[in-house]
Structures are given as structure tokens and as C-alpha cells.
Amino acid sequence: MRLVFAGTPDAAVPSLRVLAASDHDVVAVITRRDAPVGRKRVITPSPVALAAEALAIPAIKTNRLDAAATEQIAGLAPDLGVIVAYGGLVREPLLSAPAYGWVNLHFSLLPRWRGAAPVQHALIAGDAVTGAAVFQLVPALDAGDVLGQLEYRIPESETAGDVLAALSAEGAVLLRDVVDAIGAGAAHAVPQSGEPTLAPKLGDDDGRIRWGEMREAVLARIRGVTPEPGAHTTIDGARVKVLAARAAAADAPRLDPGVPILLERDVVVGTGSEPVALERVQPAGKGPMDAADWWRGRRSTAATARFDT
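The chain above was modelled as a monomer; its predicted structure follows.
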């Protein structure tokens, strides 16, 4: 089949590579325009654009699938459109332009966590299991019939970045199998069942640590917002990113929410239940470092210091 592939971030690259290596013909890639990246705001192509260039696949760079983009894509006469984290909506008449419509690889077990940040919300909510689903794209948000899915049991130590990387690799194979089935006329669509939950894009405040929450919720939030938008807290008016944390040792003292102490090599902080131990932090304007080294190097280690709750 002739495929057009729409995607932008790293999570979409494995799918593009797997489809490019298949028996199908990826005739074009649609991705968002080059954008500023990093502290120096260097204009950089998207990861999918770079992968397409390496695969010698023409790229259509657009931030909106408008009339001009629709005309350009329809002119390629695709049999199927494939979308993986493109970052924009596919509407009519583009939705019906390919002979078999569009399929979407989504990183959750639909209808749970429809939206832009399914993996992050799954971890923040404390889900033990998530997965990936390939579904038929329809006008309603992530509501189409499911053509294939896989389950993924979330290890307790993994961050959202870790889970997304794993699902990106496993989901790429699932996506190829679904595309193969569509081409062979053997695809089986199953309507979504169950109560939908929503996973909107996360903002900076979603990364703010609420020390008054139970320890499990504090750790789930830190894992769920790592690496983006990043977990953070403030102490003495200074913002600190929390890059890694774990449950404190069983013999660690119980502390009020946000109260920190240095306990051997751990910075132990109180929550609404048992304390957590900070492992890696990044103070404002500095690089990542061990939490204990940061704590010892602070100008103020007064006993009254505490993280904002």
C-alpha cells in the first residue's frame, strides 16, 4: 500500500522506520516545522523529519493540516494515512482522502487516557498497566474503533520517558501488523468499551510536587512528569528540579510534609504519609547533581528550611 506518515517527536520514529522497512511504500512524511530547541533556541528539524531525511522519504513540514496540506497529501493518492504523535488534528476532507482512511498509534489502552499525554497521566494516576492501541481515526478525539492493542506492565522504577520509549518500540511492530492486515483485507475493528478518561497536555504546574500528598502519589507524580514537563519544588524561594526520587528507608523518621533532613547519603523529605528520598536534583542555573551534595552545598541549611507544599 501507499502510505503517508504523520509524526513529529522521537516516539514516532520507530514506527516510521518499521513501516519504511516493510513491504509498503511510505510516499511522504508529514511533520511539524523546524522549531527552536535547547537553551540557545537553535532552529532544529523534528526527530521524524531527520529520520525521513535519512530514509530518503520526502517530508511535508506543516503545523496545520490545512487546505494546502490537504491538497498536497491527496495528490499523492495514498491508500492509508498513518499518524503517530503528529501534534495536530486530521479533519475532513483530509480524513477521507486516503482510500482506507487514517489509523493512529496511541500510547494507552483506549478508551483510558484519550488525549495528548496518555503515558504521563497513567503514571501520575498510579496505573499498574498501560499499553498501546492502533485505532481508526474519526473526528472525535481518540474515539475510533480499535484495530489492535498490546498491554504493558509498568515497572515501579520507570519514568514516563522510559515507558514511552518501550511503547514506541513495541507499538511500532503492532502498527506494522495492523497495516499489513488492512492491506490484506483481514483487519478486525472493535468498538471501544468502557468509560473514557482524558489525558490533556501537561503544563508546568502539573510538575509541581505536592508534598502533602501520600508518598505513593508524590513518587507517581515525579515519575509521571519525567522528563517533561519535569518535577519541581521550591525551597527558600529557589526552584529545584527533582530528577529522581524513591521511597525512603523503612527506618527513616516520619516528617511533616515538605520538611527535609540529611540522613547519611539521602535527603529525606516528609510527605502526607511516609517520607521520600531525593536522589538527583537540578538547582536553578546549575547542572544535575546528587541530592546530598546539593544539600550540603546550600548556603542555608537552617533547621527551619522546608520545601513549599
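The chain has a mean pLDDT of 95.
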